[in-house]
Fold this protein.
Amino acid sequence: MALPRFHLAFPVTNLEQARTFYTEVLGCKLGRESNDWIDFDFYGHQIVAHHNPVMPDCPTSLVEDKQVPTRHFGLILPREDWQDLANRLTDKKITFLIPPHIRFEGKAGEQATMFIQDPAGNGLEFKTFASDKDIFATDTPNSKV
């Protein structure tokens, strides 16, 4: 059975900046659009940037020793695709909120991860696991990773 696709709508302060970032930096294809929103093909998922003149604040929480934006979205990619994206973001001189690194090293749920922001300040996380079975892995049935 194919995995369902997700749909996510999120605020942006400038649609043209969003268009440039999501198409030229992340490589998304454009979908439908109006004067107030733009659909993007985000690796087969539908995300929609909605114009909002004021962005809400985004707090962070501590994960290992890094401040992670509590409101963020992203993708779990195959390792090679993740590395290609990390290289592309580096080549385009995108500032990382959290640079590419290994999190939870040697523990259940070990992952390579990185965080960036779009021009409106939305947090995006891209991560990869050694295998799909590691995505929801825990050390014990009730452990918190």
Q: What stands out?
A: Residues 73 and 98 are 14 Å apart (CA to CA).
